[in-house]
Design brief:
This protein is an alpha/beta fold and 314 residues long. The protein is 32% helix and 17% strand. Strands 7-8-9-6-5-4-3-2-1-10-11-12 form a twelve-stranded mixed sheet. Strand 3, helix 3 and strand 4 form a beta-alpha-beta unit. Helix 3 packs parallel to helix 5. The longest helix has 14 residues. It binds S-adenosylmethionine (SAM).
Length: 314
């Protein structure tokens, strides 16, 4: 079992498979053109599988495939099939643009759980936030996902002056369509403009106005979940800044270029790709996981290095 210095059991790995994305969200990527990793720098699928096997032997049992935008990486379906063959519990986070076109293939490849990021329900605003994205494609993706996948979650980052006037529209959508929506607090990573809205306050208001009650199933993640009487929908709140949940943190991250990160907010990285390419054994890889777990601090200080979320794997 992987346990850190504070007794937290680490059983969750988020894996970024690419730093490329087919959207260019204003809060996720810096304004200036960012340089992409070269092909050689990106972990090959076989390498990711090696790392997954090492992680599994240490008791990591939940895996999330993310990016960049994971659905733009060539060969992803074949990779997911491999994950299915080894009976891995995995889910995928996507911006939803390609989901409608790929849903049936993704389902055949073994995907059951999908998180779709969506920050506005207004086409013009969605296009502005994503620098050119088409809202209708994401909405189609959500509809298809409800047919093909057992768990569909919508992730919405709430940003002051950008989309905080749409919170109730998102709640209404969740209840109308029987969806799970999770509101996420903005983290000031690279935009240079802190658009933070405290969801602690928003939660209080929504509980009163929408008569929300704690959901029976809370899930193992950081989301504080609510529903309404008899409803299928879930409204969750992920509050890293107003109500930090570090004491429950169970995760490590693997970046697209093969670095293990103990915390989103930490600058420390362990080069597991270099170890692998220098012939490290399974035990060697496991030792790096142990080291990463020991690097976890008690809580984040949210003094981020200026970095695009897309390069870490949000
Ligand atoms: N392309 C995929 C997507 O859009 O979901 C996966 C990668 S994206 C980096 C993962 C998540 O990180 C998205 O839900 C996105 O909204 C979130 N994210 C990016 N920048 C963020 C920030 N500054 N604060 C909070 N969440 C952020």
């Amino acid at each position: 079992m992987l346990v850190d210095r504070f007794g937290r059991v680490i059983d969750y790995l988020r894996i970024s498979v690419t730093d490329h994305c087919n959207l260019n969200c204003i809060y996720c990527r810096p304004h200036s053109q960012i340089e992409h990793l070269s092909h050689a720098e990106i972990l090959r699928y076989e390498e990711i599988l090696e790392i997954i096997e090492a992680a599994r032997e240490l008791g990591i049992k939940k895996f999330r495939i993310t990016g960049g935008e994971p659905l733009v990486r060539r060969g992803l379906l074949g990779f997911l099939k491999k994950l299915k063959e080894i009976d891995l519990d995995f889910s995928l986070t996507t911006n939803g643009i390609l989901v409608s076109a790929m849903a049936s293939d993704l389902s055949r490849a073994g995907l059951k759980k999908i998180n779709i990021s969506l920050d506005s329900l207004r086409a013009d605003r969605f296009s502005r936030i994503t620098r050119g994205g088409e809202l209708s494609r994401v909405l189609e993706g959500i509809e298809k996902s409800q047919k093909f996948f057992s768990t569909v979650k919508i992730n919405t980052v709430v940003m002051a002056g950008i989309n905080d006037d749409e919170i109730d529209d998102f709640v209404a959508m969740a209840f109308n369509r029987g969806l799970q929506i999770r509101f996420i607090e903005f983290m000031d990573l690279c935009s240079g403009e802190d658009r933070f809205v405290s969801l602690k306050e928003v939660k209080k208001r929504l509980i009163a106005e929408w008569k929300l009650i704690p959901a029976a199933v809370q899930g193992s993640g950081p989301s504080d979940n609510y529903t309404n009487a008899g409803g299928k929908a879930v409204v969750g709140f992920i509050t890293p800044r107003s109500e930090p949940f570090c004491c429950r943190c169970n995760r490590l991250r693997l970046t697209a270029d093969g670095k293990l990160k103990a915390c989103l907010a930490s600058a420390q990285k362990l080069d597991i790709k270099a170890a692998l390419r220098n012939g490290a054994s399974r035990e060697g890889l496991k030792a790096l996981f142990q080291e990463a777990a020991q690097q976890k601090s008690q809580g984040h200080n949210f003094k981020f290095e200026r970095i695009a979320m897309s390069s870490i794997g949000g």
